[in-house]
Design goal:
395 residues; alpha/beta; Spore Coat Polysaccharide Biosynthesis Protein SpsA, Chain A; four-stranded mixed sheet; three-stranded antiparallel sheet; 12 strands; globular; glycosyltransferase activity; membrane; glycosyltransferase; BC10-like; Glyco_trans_14
Length: 395
Amino acid sequence: MPRSRNEKDEIEKYMGLSKLAQVLSFLVVFVAGVVLGLVMSSHINQHFVSKTEVYSFINHFSTDGPGVKDENCTIVRDCGKAEDCLSMNALLRPKNLTHRLSDNELFWRASMVPQKEEYPYKRVPKVAFMFLTRGALPLLPLWERLFRGHEKLFSIYVHALPGYKLNVSTTSPFHRREIPSQHVSWGTVTLADAERRLLANALLDFSNERFVLLSESCIPVYNFSTIYNYLIGSTQSFVQAYDEPTRYGRGRYSRRMLPDIKLYQWRKGSQWFELNRALAVYIVSDTKYYTLFKKYCLPACYPDEHYLPTYINMFHGPLNSNRTVTWVNWSIGGPHPVTYGEANVTVDFIQAIRNNGTPCQYNTQTTSICYLFARKFAPSALEPLLNLSSSVMKF
């Protein structure tokens, strides 16, 4: 009997120790969990406090400072109010031409057309002057004089060499008007690329209604009011398009463009065009026909002389006048027109361009004002042009 009682005591003692060990294990696990939870909570709080501080700093800076830039947007102050990417003004009239869009992204963005006819703001139509240049604009002082006092009626876009910045004052209408560009080679599809790039950037401003392509050698031959009213009031665009039966026209056509483009649809024309907004949207939206020209219009076929004339003739002929508003002299033959320098610029010469003796059609009426611009002028022509601008061109 005693032996049995001892065994029972031993068993009870063992069970008691076992329960104590379980309790102690539970307490250890519980305490460890509490400690781990406190540590993690501390790190999380510290993370969110840090993020809140950063956000608070950015928000304070963007509200109280003159402006802050991030990768996608420029926040600027306008009339005492902070303006962000989603503001109506930023959507309608982008102030900063710098962006990181590829051409495909840019053309897609520019092809968007509002379906609502009326505008939710008072829209004043503008003329977009698009300069395709290799570098400097030697005749820039003449253009600056033309634009003076008409700041709400025009926009300027410059496609120069990548990274090139015009050396102009901050008060010049050309200040910071360079668009993101790519290298351009004469006689290749890169010229058409640059034209479409200019159009797409200009289309981002919903106030731009007319789009005129110019070079560094172009000059205006009328004052701004005449140019503006002529273009804004026109019911058609001004893209020269004609059938040239020689090797310089039809001879450049490739049968590999069949069946999409047929020989009888092929057209030639001046590179220097003027478009209304509807046609500009069609052009930046086109992929099919542009791709055909890119693949098959190779030297000695020049896309800048054939793509727009052919495309517009095929699909949008009634919207086009089939003539250019930029005068040029091709009488010497060859790949380049006559260049005019200091000795050529006289009152009679400019008047001859303004009233060239060959009437043209404007809104179904006959007019003597056929050319608003002229080329090709050398840098040496600047001084005599400035001397004649007020007396002959009236600006």
